[in-house]
């Protein structure tokens, strides 16, 4: 079983390293090199790139530590796993909440384009920041106050599930189920808009809107199918030892993020190539 854990850890580490480097390169190309055009309507998508960069950078550090634990017990440090997983939990909450907000922003923009065009600029993105912060604070309140978790972790603990008590574990499962339902419903709406309604309105503004909608659709679909669904399935299999098989859950999650990053790169660089060959008026 140790060999299985090592193999899955290496695969997850490879995927996570690829993901954060790819997202970092996209941000660098947009804001530093400026060889990918900046689009105001994609501001929330760029925020998602930044969050993904941080999330998978932290995730990679955690996987390196887990890999080291399998090689030698000398690197095992009490409570270090908490210091590695806790920030991942924080950024993960930001990540899932931001995905939901981006998706809902696209749903409103797609189905009510005139209302969206006239009023979206009046809504500051700081409102999204306040909402995300509220969700993060709620999670931390439940974790430390309501469920009374502590940072005193058993030395043999090497995963999220042994780091938390049953109270927060139940809360987290409900949290993920609700997130999956919301993202699933909004993804269906975006799918209908992207593949049906978009082709009925061929205007330059709708072209940008469809691009933002495509980002949200890909993002929410991958999260539902490859991030939330696999852990939910494993949670329904009580005979499976999470210590031995739990690392398998991270493979579809990290692999899906690589796919998402490659799709995002393709979309943005395709626009760059199109702008380079377009005639000058």
UniProtKB/TrEMBL annotation:
<dbReference type="InterPro" id="IPR019420">
    <property type="entry name" value="7TM_GPCR_serpentine_rcpt_Srbc"/>
</dbReference>
<dbReference type="GO" id="GO:0004930">
    <property type="term" value="F:G protein-coupled receptor activity"/>
</dbReference>
<keyword id="KW-0472">Membrane</keyword>
<feature type="transmembrane region" description="Helical">
    <location>
        <begin position="80"/>
        <end position="103"/>
    </location>
</feature>
<dbReference type="Pfam" id="PF10316">
    <property type="entry name" value="7TM_GPCR_Srbc"/>
</dbReference>
<dbReference type="GO" id="GO:1990075">
    <property type="term" value="C:periciliary membrane compartment"/>
</dbReference>
<dbReference type="GO" id="GO:0097730">
    <property type="term" value="C:non-motile cilium"/>
</dbReference>
<keyword id="KW-0675">Receptor</keyword>
<protein>
    <submittedName>
        <fullName>Serpentine Receptor, class BC (Class B-like)</fullName>
    </submittedName>
</protein>
<feature type="transmembrane region" description="Helical">
    <location>
        <begin position="40"/>
        <end position="59"/>
    </location>
</feature>
<keyword id="KW-1133">Transmembrane helix</keyword>
<keyword id="KW-0812">Transmembrane</keyword>
<feature type="transmembrane region" description="Helical">
    <location>
        <begin position="178"/>
        <end position="200"/>
    </location>
</feature>
<feature type="transmembrane region" description="Helical">
    <location>
        <begin position="123"/>
        <end position="146"/>
    </location>
</feature>
<feature type="transmembrane region" description="Helical">
    <location>
        <begin position="212"/>
        <end position="234"/>
    </location>
</feature>
<dbReference type="GO" id="GO:0007186">
    <property type="term" value="P:G protein-coupled receptor signaling pathway"/>
</dbReference>
């Amino acid at each position: 079983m140790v060999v299985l854990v090592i193999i899955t850890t290496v695969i997850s580490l490879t995927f996570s390293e690829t993901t954060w480097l790819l997202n970092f390169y996209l941000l660098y190309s947009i804001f530093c090199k400026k060889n990918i055009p900046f689009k105001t309507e994609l501001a929330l998508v760029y925020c998602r790139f930044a969050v993904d960069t941080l999330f998978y950078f932290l995730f990679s550090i955690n996987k390196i530590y887990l890999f080291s634990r399998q090689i030698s017990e000398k690197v095992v440090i009490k409570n270090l796993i908490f210091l590695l997983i806790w920030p991942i939990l924080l950024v993960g909450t930001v990540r899932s909440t931001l995905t939901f907000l981006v998706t809902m922003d696209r749903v409103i923009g797609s189905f009510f384009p005139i209302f969206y065009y006239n009023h979206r600029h009046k809504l500051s993105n700081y409102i999204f920041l306040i909402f995300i912060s509220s969700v993060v604070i709620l999670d931390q309140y439940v974790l430390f106050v309501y469920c009374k978790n502590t940072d005193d972790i058993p030395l043999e603990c090497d995963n999220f599930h042994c780091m938390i008590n049953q109270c927060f574990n139940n809360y987290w499962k409900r949290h993920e189920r609700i997130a999956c339902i919301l993202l699933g419903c909004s993804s269906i709406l975006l799918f209908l808009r992207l593949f049906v309604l978009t082709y009925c309105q061929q205007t330059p503004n709708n072209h940008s809107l469809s691009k933002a909608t495509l980002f949200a659709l890909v993002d929410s679909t991958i999260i539902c199918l490859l991030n939330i669904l696999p852990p939910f399935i494993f949670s329904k299999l009580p005979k499976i030892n999470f210590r031995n098989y739990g690392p398998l859950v991270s493979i579809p999650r990290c692999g899906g993020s690589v796919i998402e990053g490659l799709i995002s790169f393709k979309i943005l660089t395709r626009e760059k190539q199109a702008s380079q060959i377009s005639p000058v008026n």
